[in-house]
Structure formats: structure tokens, C-alpha cells
């Protein structure tokens, strides 16, 4: 499988002046690959892509490609709501040596399904890299329909979708109607196990920053046929999965990493840190190491 089962949508570490902290990026990569991550998404929305400049994104792509050194795949977040700009960033990411592209549904514009199809087709035609579509209607304001995903799956290098619609019926339709080699990943940690049960292959995870080993164990148990153990792990992890979204992502997961002794700094405006009540609630959910 090209990207593996556990893909981490990686946060972007910042220093005290909210500049990208490359030493912290390297330490975070070491942590992720040591705890079960197969591939990382760099400069996705969990990586605060709306507040990263194009230059910062490209430097991150180059740096992570160099530091990963064959331990996994590097997927560049190059999506946007300006098709021409998304095409250009995708091409520059390919030049930087990444292994794949994560392309989010255009936000705010609210394009039609035909507009979405043409947007993603233009991006696919601009690169030889494999592309994962990213559907998250709660953030973008528009749903990439199952029918449009099926239509896009006929394009050779559109190979997967990260589904964050929360709609298991839509996921099932996509899995049923796309080719066997087209992959669906859950985009929500709390739906990983239900999604696997209907044919998803893995998850693009936020919680894997904190409980990567446990998520990997849950998926391996499911695919080994030990559904009872997988379900028990799911239930155990569910409060953390939900707690990591008590505030806009990635505010809670960055706070969790800092609490765990993996410094990643703060968040850029318009995001703000957790308040003290939220910090205390989150701390109670973190695993004891």
C-alpha cells in the first residue's frame, strides 16, 4: 500500500516567535516514526497551512523529505481555493521530492460538483505524483459527493480520498463504486474503526501524535480478525479522540505534545491557545507513560 495504514497529519512546530522550528520538526518526525506512523502529511490544515507562506511550505517539504530518509512517505498539503495557485504549489512540491499530494476541497468559493471535478482534474494533470483528495465539508462549506469522487477515481494519479464528512454511507458508496486500488482513509480518528469495517484502509490521523502505537495496534488487530480487541482499544481511545477536538485543530494536539515533553510551540493567529480549564481537561485524557 503506497502510503501505509497510519498517516499522521503533522503539526508544524513553531519557536517562541512563531517561526518554523526546524529542530523541533526533526524531533517530531523521530517521535512519529518511532510510534507507528507510516507517512506524514506536511503543511496540511493540521499543519496550519492557512498561516504558512508558500516559501515556508516549500522549505518544510524539502526539509522533511531530507529528514525522513526512507522511513515513510512524505505527502505535501498543496490544496487551496485558487486552482492555478494549487497547481503551481503542487508542481513545486514535486520538485522538492515529496512522494504524494493531499489536496483539500476548495473552501469558501462553494463550487459546484462540476467545478470540483475540474479543479482536481487540473491538479492531477499538472503532476505525476499520486494525489489524495481531502473532503471536509465542515471546514470547506461544500461536500465532495460520492459521485464526484467516483468520477475522479478514473484519473490515473488520483489514488485515494481522505474522508472527513463523518458520513459512513457516503464512504461505503465510494468504496463500492471505485476501483479496488482506489483507497479510502478515514479523516476522523473517532471513525477509524467503523470506517475500517466498511472497507477503509486506514486513517489520516491527528491523535497519532499522542497514541500512534495504540492506533496502529487497533488497526492491526482488526485486520488480523481480532475485532473484540480492536473494539476495546477504540472504546478506550475514544475520549482522547474527542478531546483533541475540544478547540479548533491543531490547538489541542499541540498542547498535548507540549505536555508530553515534545515541544512544538504555540499556534498562529487567528488560532489561540487553550484556556486553563481546557488544558486541565486535556491533561486528564493523556496516556500515562
UniProtKB/TrEMBL annotation:
InterPro entries the record matches: Aldolase_TIM, DapA, DapA-like, Schiff_base-form_aldolases_AS, Schiff_base-form_aldolases_CS
Task: Name it.
Answer: 4-hydroxy-tetrahydrodipicolinate synthase
- Entry EC no(s): 4.3.3.7
Q: Which UniProt keywords apply?
A: Amino-acid biosynthesis, Cytoplasm, Diaminopimelate biosynthesis, Lyase, Lysine biosynthesis, Schiff base
Give the GO biological process terms: diaminopimelate biosynthetic process; lysine biosynthetic process via diaminopimelate
* Residues annotated as catalytic: 134, 162
- Which PROSITE patterns does this UniProt record tie to the protein? DHDPS_1, DHDPS_2
Spell out the GO cellular component terms annotated for this protein, sorted alphabetically and separated by semicolons.
cytosol
First-level EC class = lyase
Instruction: Tell me its family.
Output: Belongs to the DapA family.
Q: Show which residues form the site (Part of a proton relay during catalysis).
A: 45, 108
Q: What does this protein do?
A: Catalyzes the condensation of (S)-aspartate-beta-semialdehyde [(S)-ASA] and pyruvate to 4-hydroxy-tetrahydrodipicolinate (HTPA).
Amino acid at each position: 500500500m503506497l502510503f501505509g495504514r497510519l498517516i499522521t497529519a503533522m503539526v508544524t512546530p513553531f519557536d517562541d516567535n512563531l517561526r518554523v522550528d526546524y529542530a523541533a520538526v526533526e524531533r517530531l518526525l523521530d517521535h512519529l516514526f518511532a510510534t507507528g506512523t507510516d507517512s506524514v502529511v506536511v503543511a496540511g490544515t493540521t499543519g496550519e497551512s492557512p498561516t504558512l507562506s508558500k516559501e515556508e511550505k516549500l522549505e518544510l517539504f524539502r526539509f522533511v523529505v531530507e529528514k525522513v530518509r526512507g522511513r515513510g512517505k512524505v505527502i505535501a498539503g498543496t490544496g487551496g481555493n485558487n486552482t492555478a495557485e494549487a497547481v503551481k504549489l503542487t508542481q513545486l512540491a514535486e520538485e522538492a521530492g515529496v512522494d504524494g499530494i493531499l489536496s483539500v476541497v476548495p473552501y469558501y468559493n462553494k463550487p459546484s460538483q462540476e467545478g470540483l471535478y475540474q479543479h482536481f482534474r487540473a491538479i492531477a494533470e499538472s503532476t505525476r505524483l499520486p494525489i489524495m483528495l481531502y473532503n471536509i465539508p465542515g471546514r470547506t462549506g461544500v461536500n465532495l459527493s460520492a459521485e464526484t469522487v467516483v468520477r475522479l477515481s478514473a484519473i490515473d494519479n488520483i489514488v485515494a480520498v481522505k474522508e472527513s464528512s463523518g458520513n459512513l454511507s457516503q464512504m461505503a458508496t465510494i468504496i463500492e463504486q471505485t476501483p479496488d486500488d482506489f483507497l479510502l482513509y478515514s479523516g476522523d480518528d473517532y471513525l477509524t474503526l467503523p470506517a475500517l469495517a466498511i472497507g477503509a484502509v486506514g486513517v489520516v490521523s491527528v491523535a497519532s501524535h499522542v497514541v500512534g502505537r495504540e492506533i496502529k495496534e487497533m488497526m492491526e488487530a482488526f485486520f488480523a480478525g481480532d475485532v473484540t480487541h480492536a473494539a476495546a482499544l477504540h472504546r478506550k481511545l475514544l475520549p482522547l479522540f474527542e478531546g483533541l477536538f475540544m478547540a479548533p485543530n491543531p490547538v489541542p494536539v499541540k498542547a498535548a505534545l507540549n505536555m508530553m515533553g515534545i515541544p512544538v510551540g504555540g499556534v498562529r493567529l487567528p488560532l489561540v491557545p487553550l484556556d486553563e480549564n481546557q488544558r486541565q481537561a486535556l491533561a486528564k485524557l493523556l496516556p500515562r507513560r
